[in-house]
Structure formats: structure tokens, C-alpha cells
Amino acid sequence: CRTASGGPLVCPPLRWGCVFSLGSCQGNSVERKIYIPLNKTAPCVRLLNATHQIGCQSSISGDTGVIHVVEKEEDLNWVLVDGPHPPYMILLDGNLFNRRVMLQLKGTSRVSGLAVAVSKPSPPQGFSPGLKCPNDGFGVYSKDYGPQFAHCNKTVWNPVGSGLSYEDFDFPIFLLEDANETQVIKQCYQDHNVPRDGSGPEYPLCAMQLFSHMHAVTSTVTCMRRSSLQSTFSINPEVVCDPLLDYNVWSTLQPINSSGKVDPKKEVIIVATRIDSHSFFWNIAPGAESAVSSFVTHLAAAEALHKASDVHLLQRNIMFTFFQGETFDYIGSSRMVYDMEKDKFPLRLDNIHSFVELNQVALRNDSILWMHTDPVSRMNESVEVQVRNLLDILSNSSMGANVTLQEAGYSQPLPPSSFQRFLRARHIPGVVLTDHKTAFQNRYYQSMYDTPENIRMQYPEGLSPEETLEYVTDTAKSLAEVATVVARALYRLAGGANNTSAIQADPKTVSRMLYGFLIKMNNSWFQSIIKPDIKAILGDVPQHYVAVSSPVNTTYLVQYVLANLTGTVVNLTKEECLNPEKTPSSEKELYEYAWVQGSLEPNSTSRVPYCVRSTVHLSKALSPAFELRQWGSTEYSTWTESRWKEIHARIFLVASKELEIITLVVGIAILIFSLIATYFINAKADVLFSIPRDPGAVAY
After folding, report:
1. Membrane-crossing residues (predicted)?
2. Mapping DSSP to helix (H, G, I), strand (E, B) and coil, where does residue 447 land?
């Protein structure tokens, strides 16, 4: 047998001959001849919450099937009805990866797995495997608070949401990220598996094997209980699932004691955004519109505000907050609210003057940005007065800019947002800024297609990586305008009285951030602003999934970008920077210090490191449900991720069952013959291997 590309590919049954008759066979070299590994894939994995499991898994030894390429819906008939060689591994065109097709495949035993090819260009009709009502049940609206708005009764925010990510599949599903590997599979299918004249193809057939067995089952309650019992009674506990967790990133305009408590009379304005995203496949979460556009705008606004000359004189402080895990029922924001309520955070809820959140701002129509408020809390007269003041300041700050701010309407509820978790605890005046009045403009919410192209990022051809990093796109200019309006509004809201025309976000900085967070993390700017001991986090393609190991790349980079944009370079040695408590004037309780790599010297490979002082801090983004061991909670997020041992995919040629049986029988026969021969040879060894006497020898 040979591969589609012409290389040797031995049929699996031939391995038995090697095992039984050729003792010199090398396992690794044989495996290379049998299998072609698929190295650029992303699996669908199992996630669990308090009530159920979602995602995918293979059997414990992996699932195997004959490959069939499905490029149009009619091709499914061969898999589901006509094909004579089930079960099948389907290579599915990305345009057919939808709920209708997937539910057909879910209900049959003739499918053993699925490999999905990325659709290029993105599906024009849109694709969102998320829910139509994201984070339903964990926001502020319920039967007790604004029941008319609960469960998206008033507004369906994500109408293209299919809920596919929240289905449970009992077969493995992998994404093929490399077009070349997709072509290799298609060529193997063309050479061996294409039906001839309506009849089935002849052996050998091209097959695929997918490994993605998950350890956790049923729900978070079940898997956490099992892990807890293992940890209690076992010397070598085997944990089967882990909570989704990470860190929130936060900083303040005026420094505060991060280990103390802010004066109850001191008012603080919270500016918030999320920094995580999600898609159907594990760690594939580009999140261009759903996350990156908003947190990049937030970072640019923070830089613009810090450059104002009188920020230290402002009546109110401003806290810039970046929440992790918001995709999964508001992990980060619910934890911060919990910590504030339990006095485990420098701020209390009573310190919050108002709340401004940036949430999907890149796809504006006619440069309009919509201001969403909570109609229920505005029924309180004092809250209404403060919300009206907030809206007026925002609207006035947009005058003369290329951004128009409009109210979404008094009867319109809040979209899915971190602000909702704060409202659950206390009536806080606040506004959520979005590019949509009702349903999302984003047709690829929580999907692998929420890419730079989705927010219209375009670069001229022929640019080097360094030129691309510095190139100012129209998207960057647009988001910089939003950041400018937000920064000016925050200045006014904090009590600033000077002219705000000098407060201006930098489009070049926005361009760098968009490039780094959406196209290539491993770029010269990111390299220069991080610590030397974490430079390994700079992978190629950025992803923004919250994960179970922390901090993830996105959290680290938001932390160091924020420190770079809002911090101060201080004249400290490396030793002093790493141990600021030894320097009397460092004010360690107010500031964080970081020794960063710095830029490369001209015509050199060495860097010029320096020390950055900032007010940037991290706080836990672990759901309170796990702190309280309330794994069945309906108040807090309970999402966990299953553990697994190995995940990989490969293709190979498979022989007919008859040939496999014949090969096995011949192998067993050779083995039995070898054992019998060995027995008789051993029994007659004294005869067969005796040493003859030398006839010339003389005995004395």
C-alpha cells in the first residue's frame, strides 16, 4: 500500500507479520510507514457545568472510520444510508458545519468522527455556535428583577446563535487548521475511497483515527466530587476536571493601597471590558469583535487619560478593569463582586460612583455607538439622575469626533455584560457602549471566524512583519476615535474641568495592539514590554480562551501592555526593581514593579532592559462556586474542563476485514509453529548441539 502523496503506507494488518516473524522490526519506523499524523488540528473537548456536559470525546482507544468527503448536503446520503463501509470519518466542508447537519450526524451509529475544514472566506450567512441568549440566567434579569427582560424576551441578542457549542457529541470532532493537511486527506480519499459507478470502492481504503478521550462525565458536581474523593483518599489522586479560571487585570488612575481598603467616602468610576472569547474548538478563540476590539479600545483610553496633566487632582479615581472568563457565565466579574462584598478587595461596592463598559465596538453603522442602560434600576429617582448625567457627559464628549453616541432606549434592557453582575448586588448608575442597538452586529460571535477580517482589518500587500506592526489601519483609527471619546467622558465624569482637546488616543498604539492581539503575538513591541522569564508566552497566532492554567497569554499581555501604556520608567537597577521593598522610596504598597526586556539595540541581538512602575494588579478570576464548594450553584458560574491524556489525529490505509483475519490467522499459525519448533529443538538440544569427539584424542 502507498499514501496518496506517493510515500510508503503499510496497511495495519502487516504489523502482525512484523511482530510475529521479524524480531528486528523497529516500532517507530514501522509507525511512520503506517500513519500520516495530522499536526495542525484543534479538538472539540468536553466542558461541564452544574447540570450537564457539552462538547465531544472519542472512545478510550480513539475512534476510526473510513474517510468520506462531504462538500454538499447530498453527499451525506452515502454516509447515512448508502455507503457499504461504516462507520465513516467525515471530512466536512466548513460551510456545512451547522446545527441542522450536525444533529443528523449525531443521531446515527454510522459516523465515528468528524474533521472540519475551515471555510474561506467566512460563511456569508454568518456562523455562531454560541447561544441566542448568551449567559442566560446569570445576568441581572430574572423572575424577581425585570422579568419582562429575562431570557431575552425583549431582545434576542445573538439571533444567528445555533447553540452548537452547547451540544454533547459522543464522537470526536477536530478542526483542520492547515489547508495542506486538508488537501492530503482529500487526495487520499480521491485515490482510494471515491465510489465507482455507484458501487463501493475496493480495499485498501483511506481511514482516519481521532484520539480525544475525556476523563470527566455527567456534570461539574459529579467530576468535582470524584476529584475531591481522589484527593482525600488516594496517595496519587487522579483529577478528572478543573475549574475554568484565570486572573482579572485592574489598575487605577490614582494609586491605591492594593492590600488595604479605600476610604468609604472615596468615589471610584469603574471602566470595564472582557478579555476572553470562545468557539466550538478548544483554544480557538480569536474574538476580534467579541473581545479584542473592546479591550484594545479600553487600553487606548487608559493611555490617553494617564497623559492628562492634572489626573492626580481629579475628585474621583478611575479603575480600569479587564475581566477574564466572562464568556462562561461571568466568571471574572462575579468573582470581583464577591470579593468586594466579602472585603477581600481594596474597593467596596459602596465606593463605586458609576460604571462604564465597552462591549463590541468595532462594527459601527454610520459611526453610531449605542448607550445601553438598565431600565429597572432607573426607576429609582436618584439612580435616574446619575444615569442621565452619565449619558449627557458621554454625548457631549463625542461632539466634534467621528463618533455619534445615541441612547438605545429607556425600555431596552442591557445586553449581556459584566455590568449586570454588579447590578445584581447593588443599584449602580452605569452604561454599556456597543455598536448594536438590538441584536449583535457580529455575525460570528463566539466562533472561529471572529477574525481580523471580521472587523475589516486590511493591510497592503508586501509589508514586512515590522511594517505591518506599525501600519495604521482604518479599524485602528476608528477604535482610537472611540477611545478618545471614552477617555474625555471619563475625565469629565471624574471631575475634570480643563479643556479635553488634549486627551487623544493614539491610532498607532491601537494598530500595534490589534496586530499583537489578533495576528502575531510574537512581535518586536510585545517582546520589549514583557519580563524575560515569560517570553515563552509569545506564540504566533493569538487565542483568547480562558482555560484552566493561569495566567493565560492574553492576561499576561494585557497586564504588561497596560503597565507599558500607563506606567512610568523608573531609574532602578535590576536588583532594586525585583525587590522594591528594599528601596525606602518605592512605595511598594501603592505600585507594582516589573523588570522588562526592552528593545533591541541597533544592529545587535542584545536588549536594553528597564524597570516599569505601574498601578496594574491581578485578582483571581475563579468562580466563587468553587471557593464555596457549591458545585451545583445557580448563582455563580460552575464551568469546568475535562482532563485528557492525549489528543491527536492521523490517517492511514486500512485493509478488508477478510485480509485482516487471514493475516491474523497466518500470524498465529506462524507463532504456534515457532513455539512447537522451539519446544522440540530445546528437547533434542543435547543431540542436535552435542560436540563430537576428536578421533585422534587418547584417553589416559
Report:
1. 661-681
2. coil
Residue 442's SS3 state is coil
DSSP code of residue 635: S
Q: For the residues 370-375, what does the mean pLDDT come to?
A: 97
Q: Given its phi and psi angles, is residue 55 left (phi above 0), alpha (psi -120 to 50 degrees) or beta? A: left
Candidate from 14-18, 63-67, 673-677 with smallest mean pLDDT: 14-18
**φ, ψ for residue 543, nearest 5 deg:** -135, 150
What are residue 361's phi and psi, to 5 degrees? -125, 5
The better pLDDT of the pair 198, 649 is held by 649
Band of pLDDT at residue 157, cut at 50, 70 and 90: very high
Q: Are 667 and 20 in contact (CB under 8 A)?
A: yes
The H or E element spanning position 395 is: helix 381-397
Residue (of 50, 132, 146, 134) closest to 424 by Cα position: 146
Q: Which residues pair with 90 in a beta bridge?
A: 68, 114
Q: Are 210 and 58 in contact (CB under 8 A)?
A: yes
**HEC string of 200-235?**
CCCCCEEEEEEECCECCCCCHHHHHHHHHHHHHHCC
Sign of CA dihedral 367, 372, 378, 379: positive
Question: How far is residue 189's CA from residue 209's CA, in Å, rounded to a whole number?
Answer: 14
Residue 100 has pLDDT above 90, yes or no: yes
Q: Are 422 and 356 in contact (CB under 8 A)?
A: no
What pLDDT does 695 receive?
Answer: 62
For the record, the C-alpha cell of 140 comes out as: 441581572
pLDDT digits (tens, 9 = 90+) for 495-527: 998 999 999 999 999 999 999 999 999 999 999
Contact assessment for residue 555 and residue 547, using Cβ atoms and an 8 Å cutoff: no
Task: Select from 25, 2, 3 the least CA-distant residue to 15.
Answer: 25
C-alpha to C-alpha distance for 163 and 99, rounded to whole angstroms? 8
**What dihedral angle (degrees, nearest 10) is formed by the CA atoms of 545, 548, 550, 555?**
20
**Torsion angle of alpha carbons 191, 195, 196, 201, nearest 10°?**
70
